[in-house]
Design brief:
oxidoreductase; single chain; SDR family oxidoreductase; binds nicotinamide-adenine-dinucleotide; 7-stranded parallel beta sheet; alpha/beta; SDR_fam; NAD(P)-bd_dom_sf
């Protein structure tokens, strides 16, 4: 029997891509789901696609609004009396060179990807501690493990999440709190289209590498398997995941390979 059964799982970024596939896949388990992102109408469409819509509650949130996270956490708990797993999946990417990128774009990437995730996680933490159980599942990226041009602010924010959640795991393991970091490579979603460019406007076009990535359905399955196994960290993608090991053992080789690959 899966450890997912009986759990209440709160998924952010549930309106599209990886989050949407995760919610649809999880809805075939015997669990309650709370689904969040900015647009309620998009979340309602996702709910309609799910196997057990009666077990799904919608809770719109914008990760930019850090001060709202405590109220939102209380609302999330009120739906089913508890939250067992928070999947911090919502995020936004970047496609612009450092020399061209406005500081405001870095602020936005940190506000959403890092501080928004930290604010939401801190808001649910007292509940996890009180319940002596809670699982943070945070979606970063392979860009949280090594860098690639055009993604300086995104890499910074995703690397920062690894630092924060390493400490979360150490400080709260004694309280029954678990942490799983999910690092996708290329997954076929709108992430490149939504990525911020030098002036903060979305790129709108897709990247070839993203188009050729794994499906969000496969990414969702691998995430669920990692959650069930209480993994500390999982790499989800194609051959690009080898970059993590190259970074550790042959950093100069990885540097040359990333530059040669000219991935945008
Ligand atoms: N697709 C990839 O190739 C890839 C690779 C590495 C990491 N990731 C990560 O996976 C996660 C999901 O991205 P995706 O690929 O499904 O892209 P996506 O653009 O399809 O989905 C992103 C989700 O985050 C939500 N979101 C964005 N800004 C938000 C905000 N301010 N407040 C609340 N929600 C917000 C969006 O509404 C959407 O639901 C992100 O954290 C992303 O960085 C994706």
């Amino acid at each position: 029997m899966s450890s997912i059964n009986g759990k209440t799982i709160w998924v952010t970024g549930a309106s599209s891509g990886i989050g949407k596939s995760l919610v649809i896949t999880l809805s075939s388990y015997s669990c309650n789901l709370i689904i969040s992102s900015r647009r309620k109408d998009e979340l309602m469409k996702v709910k309609e696609l799910c196997e057990s819509p009666e077990n799904i509650s919608i809770l719109p949130l914008d990760l930019k609004n850090h001060e709202e996270m405590e109220n939102l956490a209380q609302k999330a708990i009120s739906f089913y009396g508890k939250v067992d797993i928070l999947v911090n999946n919502a995020g936004i990417s970047q496609r612009s060179l450092i020399k061209d990128t406005k500081l405001e774009v870095y602020e936005q990437l940190m506000d959403i990807n890092y501080l928004g995730t930290v604010a939401l996680s801190k808001a649910i933490l007292p509940h996890f501690i009180a319940n002596k159980y809670g699982h943070f599942v945070t979606v970063t990226s392979l860009m949280g493990k090594f860098g690639s041009p055009y993604r300086s602010g995104y890499c910074g924010a995703k690397h920062a999440l690894h630092g924060f959640f390493d400490v979360m795991r150490m400080e709260h393991e004694k309280d029954g709190v678990k942490v799983t970091m999910v690092c996708p490579g290329f997954v076929q979603t709108n992430v490149a289209k939504n990525a911020l460019t030098a002036d903060g406007s979305p790129q709108k076009d897709d990247d070839v590498a993203t188009q050729n990535g794994i499906t969000p359905e496969l990414a969702a399955k691998k995430m669920i398997s990692a959650i069930e196994k209480d993994k500390f960290e999982v790499y989800v993608g194609g051959k690009e995941v080898k970059g993590v090991y190259l970074k550790r053992f042959f950093p100069k080789l990885l540097h040359k390979m990333v530059l040669k690959s000219q991935v945008r």
